[in-house]
Amino acid sequence: MKAALPTRSILLTLIASAIFLGSAAFAHAQAGGGLDLRWARIAGGGATSTGGTLEVGSSIGQLEAGGLSGGAFSLEGGFWPAAAQVPSSQVLCVDDGGGATDAPCANPTAFTAIQDAVTAAAAGDEIRIAAGTYVTSAGTAVVTLNKSLSLTGGYPGGAGGWTTPGDETLTVIDGQGTRQGINVSLSGLSVTVQNLSVAGGAVVLPNPSMLSNSLPVSAQFLQQSSGTISGTAPITVTGVLTWSGGTQTGPGTTVILPGAQLNINGNVNASNGRVVNNLGTAAWSSGNINLGGAGGGTLNNSGTFTVLGNGGIGNGIANNSGTFVKTSGGATTASFPFTFNNSGLVDLQAGTMQIGFGGSTGTFSVAAGAVLNLCNCGHHVLQPASSVEGEGSLLVSGTFGSGADHVISGTLALPVIDLDSGRVNIDAVGANAASTVMTLTLDGGTLGGTRTISVTNALSWLRGNMDGPGHTDVLPGAQFNINPTLSSIQAAEGRVINNYGAATWSGSQLVSLGGCCGTDAATLNNHAGATFTILNNQTLT
Fold first, then answer.
1. Which end of the chain is more exposed for a tag (fewer CB within 10 A), N or C?
2. What was the pLDDT predicted at 24?
3. Of 354, 359, 357, 324, nearest to 341 (Cα)?
4. Phi–psi pair at 71, nearest 5 degrees
5. What gap in Å lies between CA 158 and CA 222, rounded to an integer?
6. pLDDT tens-digit profile of 35-84?
């Protein structure tokens, strides 16, 4: 239909169109003289229609999708079709040299600054970054992420260079030592940062947001005080990782390279298969380390890990093949079900360190006044190659779990052993047939095993049992105090107790050498030159 419409017809047309403003009907393209009606959706919108002195205002509606025009007259308005009301995510491309882009980039000319692309992007968009070094002279960070986006580096750029990235060393975000590299500035975001390197500034996660990566990231500095780091690919720290809060989760790894530093100074979590590998120097000054969550987390130390505070570590696994140092005077506690495996050196310079589940082939060096505590949070096996040595103490305060016996079959050379509860088997294996201690105190639990334990100063037997075919020898000049006041005590299963010193039996409870439930009886020998003084009227059975 091609005929010019008079002004009266235009008015009638507008009136007819107004009938459909709320009906969301479609109109096909029509033209007549100077009048053209393009394909559009005629409905209430927020636009204004004018023609000469004619003005038609419409209600607030959706985005404009078309127009009606003729001479001085135009009518604009209508809805986008429903499928187009929420635009799909797009790919924006950045190249520090600028230039033309190619598919799938939505911008025909590359942004030269990453932050410009962030500003132009909508939540859910992807930003692809070409190889190059990206800096800024303004702001506190080269890139501030204030919306949920995906940043991937390493692309060649130019024509055909936006589909397959190279490695993470090709794209460098450089804070030049004066500003942060990347800052996730708001809470509740979900951002992906991957396949790039950050130098001269930190990757900072200060808020409860999520930062993830499925391709590698290298960062000179990483600061996490909140939120979650997740992903399947490694994050490698070449300078300093400051971890004062938040969670690292998923099957990816966080690697602190040789020469780099890990600082833990708050409550932190590693879960769901996360692995933290310290190859450098670590310092844990405050807070607790939780290696829990589905699948647990793992902390591997092949560098130096120093405990400066008195926090707790729980769940998951810690493996030490390097040097683990405790300098703080309080207790470093282990929470069930925590596993600690030592194939390197544990240097306890002060305080108490608890270990539960796990097995060790390495060395525990326990300084005077320090305590290695086999705790009621698992059961530990110190294998024949292991060594527990020094001038400190071994405390056995319980066992937990199936087959719940602590076992020592390696070298044991400490002056003090305290057995409060649980069970420890000290076995004779190879050259480790005997151990000498200054002081042995049994105040609960069971001392078992096949090794000979020789006491040079004092054996105090207050509660608990001794069993197994090993020997307990009280050497000449040593004191053997038998003083059961709360419950009876027992030796069984072939245990041999040899007194070469001065024994005193007091207390209000009996002493049994008879064994139980089909087990072999024990033997108490008072050797020539020794004394055995009875100060009570109790029974020896």
1. N
2. 37
3. 359
4. 65, -125
5. 31
6. 343 333 334 444 444 444 434 444 444 444 444 444 444 444 444 444 44
Pairing of strands 496-499, 393-397: unpaired
pLDDT of residue 292: 87
**DSSP code, position 6:** P
Place of tokens 């049992």: 465
Per DSSP, helices labelled H in 114-208 are: 114-120
CA distance 18 to 159: 49
Q: Which pTM was predicted? A: 0.82
Which DSSP string do the residues of 14-73 spell out, in sequence order?
HHHHHHTTTTTEEE--EEETTEEE-SEEE--BS-EEEETTEEEE--S-B----EEEETTE
Class of residue 112 by CB neighbours under 10 A (exposed 0-12, middle 13-18, buried 19+): middle
For tokens 């429903």, the residue is 82
**The amino acid at 462:** L
Local structure of 120: helix, strand or coil = helix
Over 80: is that where the pLDDT of 463 sits? yes
Query: What is the dihedral angle through the alpha carbons of 426, 432, 438, 440, rounded to the nearest 10 degrees?
Result: 10
Phi, psi values for residue 12, rounded to 5°: -60, -40
CA distance 540 to 511: 5
Joined together, the tokens standing for residue 371 give 């305590």
What number of helices (H) and strands (E) belong to the chain? 2, 57
